[in-house]
């Protein structure tokens, strides 16, 4: 394939998409792409928040692979690097401060826009998807005029991330009985979400609806972005990988937002590969990880495999090996204070998942088929518990040694 | 690169800059133009090239503005004053005196927002800062805005400046990779409409030093001590002590590593996203 686009959406839960069973019609455009997509039903992120998951998405490595996390280790290979080396034009457009050039994510990109020099407001502290779209459109237009060389584009939307302050029109699409003003929505952010206060179920449900309105909004940005590709006649030779870095919690396990937990609402990810030459939609039920994304991009460009990458190419589907998935994180609220004592890990094989919280020396295990909500801990009763534990144990605190 | 090749390359780079400057003089009148000068290597190079164009065409040099952010190096002050006199510049020192007064002239003093004048209060509100106080630091989020951005905008407003020369380079930050020589800024709340003109956009950090050496352009003594990028005094760090900037490994290390402003911006974004 000539071009590859990686389209990532911050904080997008898998279960918010129609093509993954959501019935609220929040993603009509993404759903409409399904007959040209491979849809992965068991995608796992490598961590429940941006810093923990993006090493998987862009470097095919794990958050705690290179010692105590502090910016992007120079030892990691960003997917942009081998791609650029092969003479393919690389461009990145995003607005997530955890992925800014100050932290080292700008390596290997011909164009790297992280928006950090722009002024943003308190309520919308990032550059919105439609503005990113226009920047990308401008770049793609000039790129196609200048010989139209093959390119790799990474585009990341922030709009679903809190604070949830969706425009009226999107609130109305989700629930027109909600009459909150922007200030009132923002108050829910400062008074309920930031305090992780789940005591009032009504407010938690309201937060979810505002979140849903942002999902609906991003679906429109994706529609607009595809229209740009169509207009520039790029859609027919471009593969587009669509995924998210992590989900968001709405009280499922007693919290809000995305802290250091390893349950499905945070670590299940949507993953779609849009291929214009696909003649019908496909569904893949293999257990796959976001560390598989960089090797897939390498495969799509026909480049030599990158040795340091931990994942496997998702394509061709029939060659994908059966394997387990790992993820890890450190307590997000204390890690900036240097508290490395609160680390958490998960390992999943088929539909069984073990979670280990190191500071409490506490194990959990769930059968995701029988117990989709992960409420029934079977660590003491499952015959498979010891085997799964033994696979996860070597990863625990390995990063303190290196 | 041989010395001869270096001289040739510098001449080409400077010629490209001169084209941009000549175009600016065609687009705007002398009175509508101004030059920003920090005393750093980039803006000094820009000023030097503009001056060459003016000398060649026997036109007056546009007015020059320099911002005193309340935390500057005495070495830079001396450098600016010396060359302003030597080059007979129409130079204006711009400062947000109201903020300095409210801070009692002391760095890190806690400034109460209500002690500021109306304009400064409105500016704080505009950037979404909602606390009642802030520390007086030139490169903190609020400090940078009040001491630099506001002062810059007010200067433009005061003189009806339409085009302002800046010493920005594309390679300075990847975010600038797509910058253009003439960047038009629409009027916005408290920001007058203007065009930012960036004649040395195509220079790399290495080019700047090569050109300074080839053309004997003056530079501030701090670069000899190992500074590579000069911002406010308390937030600029020596990159390699005792190694002059032009002798450092410019290609493989970061120019702005010693600058705290980028970090401040990132931290502010994270705070707004709910991470602090």
Highlighted features:
heterodimer, A: 402 residues, Alkaline Phosphatase, subunit A, Arylsulfatase, C-terminal domain, 8-stranded mixed sheet, 11 helices, B: 276 residues, alpha/beta, two-stranded antiparallel sheet
Write up this protein:
The complex is a heterodimer of chains A (402) and B (276). Chain A is globular and about 60 Å long. Helix content of chain A is 28%, strand content 19%. Chain A folds into 2 domains: 275 residues, Alkaline Phosphatase, subunit A (3-Layer(aba) Sandwich); 62 residues, Arylsulfatase, C-terminal domain (2-Layer Sandwich). Chain A is of the alpha/beta class and 402 residues long. Chain A has an 8-stranded mixed sheet with strand order 4-3-5-1-6-9-2-10, sandwiched between helices. A 4-stranded antiparallel sheet of chain A has the order 11-12-13-14. A two-stranded antiparallel ribbon of chain A has the order 7-8. By secondary structure, chain B is an alpha/beta fold. Chain B is 41% helix and 11% strand. The mean pLDDT of chain B is 88. In chain B, the strands form 2 sheets. A 6-stranded mixed sheet of chain B has the order 3-2-1-6-8-7. Chain B has one domain: 3-Layer(aba) Sandwich (Rossmann fold), CATH 3.40.50. At the A-B interface, strand 4 of A face helix 8 of B.
Instruction: Write out the strand line-up for the largest beta sheet of chain A, numbering strands in chain order.
Output: 4-3-5-1-6-9-2-10
How big is the Rg of chain B? 19 Å
Q: Largest interface, per-chain counts?
A: A-B, 33 and 19 residues
Which percent range fits the helix content of chain A? 25-40%
Number of strands of chain A: 14
Q: Name the helix and strand elements of chain B from N-terminus to C-terminus, one letter apiece.
A: HEHEHEHEHEHEEEHH
Q: How far is it from the N-terminal to the C-terminal residue of chain A, by CA? A: 39 Å
**CATH class assignment of chain B:** Alpha Beta
Task: List low-pLDDT spans of chain A.
Answer: none
**CATH architect. name of the largest domain in chain A:** 3-Layer(aba) Sandwich
Average predicted confidence as pLDDT of chain B: 88
Outline type of chain A: globular
The biggest sheet of chain B amounts to:
6 strands, mixed
As for the number of domains of chain B, it is 1
The number of helical segments of chain B is 8
- What's the main sheet of chain A like? 8 strands, mixed
CATH architecture annotation of chain B: 3-Layer(aba) Sandwich
Lateral strand order in the biggest sheet of chain B = 3-2-1-6-8-7
- How far the N terminus sits from the C terminus of chain B, by CA atoms, comes to 49 Å
By CATH, the topology of the largest domain in chain A is Alkaline Phosphatase, subunit A
